[in-house]
Specification:
Elements (H helix, E strand, L loop, with lengths): L1 E3 L13 H6 L4 E3 L25 H10 L5 E6 L4 E6 L2 E5 L2 H18 L5 E7 L5 H11 L7 E6 L2 E7 L1 H20 L9 H18 L2 E9 L2 H8 L1 H18 L5 E6 L2 E9 L3 H13 L4 E3 L2 E3 L3 E8 L6 H17 L4 E4 L11 H13 L3 E10 L5 E12 L3 E3 L1 H11 L2 H21 L6 E5 L2 H4 L4 H12 L6 E6 H4 L3 H14 L2 E7 L6 H6 L4 E4 L1 H4 L6 H16 L3 E5 L4 H10 L3 E3 L9 H11 L5
Parallel strand pairs: 3-7, 5-6, 14-15, 17-19, 19-20, 20-21, 21-22, 22-23, 23-24
Antiparallel strand pairs: 1-2, 3-4, 4-5, 7-8, 9-11, 9-14, 10-11, 12-13, 16-17, 16-24, 17-18
Helix pairs in contact: 4-5, 7-8, 11-12, 13-15, 15-17
Bound molecules: ligand C2E and magnesium ion (2 copies).
């Protein structure tokens, strides 16, 4: 509907001609549908005997003298609304002759100036508008009192009272519809919101149970949306979200529901599936559809999405848990490099659906002392001597208790908070080394995890050099654990950074080795000191031949390149002995010790009778 609303101010010039003034301030409604909507005339049903001779003025007199009458709506007998007078607010459906008859040239001014009006700002509506529009304008005017009767006038004379229930009902229905819309639809994109979606999912699950079919939930998150918003502004951000909804709908089946559940998060509900594979296919098509740039407001943007899939009833039968699992799978897709989809599995770390608040909490965690480091020993397998510790970040959330780094590190990476967090971890680890040294604890190497975002941000080597100097740390006792993904970026730049770090004397290890895009090439080119065999290969190493051969191959590879190896996740003596046989130098895992706090490290060392190497 194309409406031009001109604000109507309080009448401030007593000499102005009322009619002319209001004409100039009409609220115009242009809508073709008006033709079909019922007009006030069709609703007029006389209820009281009509005194055709009573002038309008008398009605107004009655209104003024009877405080029990809150408001008087007035229509003329051609069915046109001519006036609505309310004690709090004056609303006029404007017709010039009526106004003139009623108030005279100066009358309206006196009328409004009287103490019957607390907010004497008339709202003026074009004459002969439909009931629909009268209702809409009344709602918008914020009129406080609803009336159930119309005073019908003819040529400015009282013509009786008509039933106004229909108008009232219409207003009520409109309001209800408006409230329903606000509560169930996303204002920006017009698609269902979280509330309506949850409802539809429940329905879909009930239906699936009856028919033996399945339901898929696709949790879609826009990658790096914050950057779009921050660099191009909210208008572009909003336009991108609207464009994405269009794209999602185009790829989805007609019967699927696309919903926006917050910021840059969407969900796609697929009902009535014969097999979960159709959900995977749709997710693949969604990712593909993002290859085309999004054209908005003169910008051509490549926008990618990360998608997580959960299936009812396979993954959960509870709607909110199912949504949380799709969210968790989406998060895994992000952690695996974004622009792709993941299917929920038992191995997917589940996250709290209130991730947004987690982000805020994490920002405060540093200041509130909720973070600390745990240290997990690394041991020489052949001798059982402690050689080092790995610093592992811990978060003790005031309400939720301990939160796993597997949950909050990806979040910190996504939001960029990792740069600050990582710097804190480094300084904290160095402070601990200095403290241990001062109390004469055996010298241990300190391994620190460095995330890709942190490594590529600013001048990392410089930051490291300054921290080493500040705490007076022997750099050969520091080892940075990098994942293969860190190294896969711009090779020349990475190489340059690694060389500068090596010049400081710091050691470099590749964490979770074997799980990434291992390439012999970079192993040869990069100045690496140690490989950490990922714990997934150590698990069941004596019973899973594939794991045993991979581990053997990694040890042989390290040997040929003169690299050290440490095996992660050794949980029992059988694994330990087997790795010893394979010639693995060091190990880390629950078999030796769980991650320990500072006091426990001292106890553990004392219990081992560690030498002061
Ligand atoms: P990671 O660097 O591979 O750390 C090893 C993880 O394996 C730790 O989990 C450790 O507690 C766990 N682990 C050690 N031995 C065993 C064992 O015998 N059995 C089993 N089942 N698990 C074992 P945690 O502390 O939950 O850390 C998980 C990941 O979080 C780390 O994996 C690392 O990628 C990341 N992380 C932790 N602290 C930091 C940090 O300060 N900075 C960065 N960027 N990442 C961190
Ligand atoms: Mg590590
Ligand atoms: Mg690891």
């Amino acid at each position: 509907m194309d409406r031009v609303h001109m604000p109507v101010n309080q009448v401030d010039n007593p000499t102005a001609q009322a009619g002319e003034r209001f004409l100039g301030q009409m609220l115009f409604i242009k809508d073709d549908r008006l033709q079909e909507a019922p007009t006030v005339r069709s609703l007029v049903r006389p209820m009281l005997p009509v005194d055709r001779q009573a002038p309008c003025e008398h009605l107004i007199q009655r209104f003024l003298s009877e405080p029990a009458i809150y408001a008087l709506p007035v229509v003329d007998d051609a069915g046109c609304p001519v006036a609505l007078v309310d004690r709090k607010r004056f609303v006029e459906f404007f017709t010039k002759p009526f106004s003139k008859e009623l108030f005279g040239r100066q009358g309206i001014v006196d009328f409004l100036a009287g103490n019957h009006y607390h907010a004497p700002a008339p709202v003026i509506i074009e004459d002969c508008c439909s009931v629909e529009d009268a209702a809409q304008i009344l709602i918008a005017s914020g009129i406080e009192h609803m009336v159930t009767g119309f005073i019908v006038t003819h040529d400015g004379l009282y013509a009786g009272v008509a039933n106004g229930h229909d108008l009232l009902n219409l207003i009520t229905q409109r309001k209800q519809a408006e409230l329903y819309y606000l509560a169930h639809y996303d204002h920006l994109t017009g698609v269902p919101n979280r509330v309506l979606l949850a409802d539809r999912i429940s329905q879909a699950c009930r239906e699936a149970e009856r028919s033996g079919s399945q339901v898929a939930l696709l949790f879609i998150d826009v990658d790096r949306f914050k950057q779009i918003n921050d660099s191009l502004g909210h208008r572009v951000g909003d336009a991108v979200l609207r464009a994405l909804v269009g794209r999602f709908k185009a790829v989805a089946r007609k019967m699927d529901t696309v919903a926006r559940i917050g910021g840059d998060e969407f969900m796609l509900l697929m009902e009535n599936l014969a097999t979960p594979e159709s959900a995977d296919m749709l997710a693949g098509r969604l990712v593909d559809a993002m290859r085309q740039p999004v054209e908005v407001l003169g910008h051509s943007l490549i926008v990618t999405v990360s998608i997580g899939i959960a299936i009812y009833p396979r993954d959960d039968s509870d709607v909110s848990r199912l949504m949380a699992k799709a969210d968790a799978a989406m998060y895994e897709a992000k952690a695996k490099g974004r622009n792709g989809f993941r299917i929920y599995s038992d191995g997917t770390a589940t996250f709290n659906p209130a991730r947004l608040s987690l982000e805020n909490d994490l920002r405060r965690a540093l200041a509130n002392d909720e973070l600390y480091l745990a240290f997990q020993p690394q041991v020489e397998i052949a001798s059982g001597q402690p050689r080092g510790v790995e610093a592992l970040l811990r978060w003790n959330h005031p309400q939720r208790g301990p939160i796993s780094p597997l949950e909050f590190i990806p979040l910190a990476e996504e939001t960029g908070l990792i740069v600050q967090l990582g710097a804190w971890v480094m300084r904290q680890a160095f402070a601990q080394m200095a403290a241990w040294k001062s109390v004469g604890l055996p010298t241990l190497r300190m391994a620190i995890n460095i995330s890709a975002v942190q490594f590529h941000h600013g001048d990392f080597a410089e930051l490291l050099a300054r921290a080493l100097a500040e705490f007076d740390i022997d750099p050969t006792l520091v080892e940075l654990e990098l994942t293969e993904s860190v190294l896969m970026h711009n090779v020349e730049e990475v190489l340059d950074n690694l060389r500068r770090i090596k010049t400081l004397g710091v050691m470099l290890a590749i964490d979770d080795f074997g799980t990434g895009f291992s390439s012999l090439n970079y192993l040869r080119r990069f100045p690496i000191d140690r490989l950490k065999i990922d714990q997934s290969f150590i698990r069941d190493i004596t019973r899973t031949p594939a794991n045993a051969s991979i581990t053997k191959a990694i040890i042989a590879l390290a040997d040929s390149l003169s690299l050290d190896v440490v095996a992660e996740g050794i949980e029992d003596s059988v694994e330990n002995d087997y790795l010893n046989e394979l010639g693995c130098q060091e190990g880390q895992g629950y078999y030796f010790a769980r991650p320990l706090n500072t006091a426990q490290v001292a106890e553990w060392l004392a219990g081992r009778g560690a030498d002061s190497a």
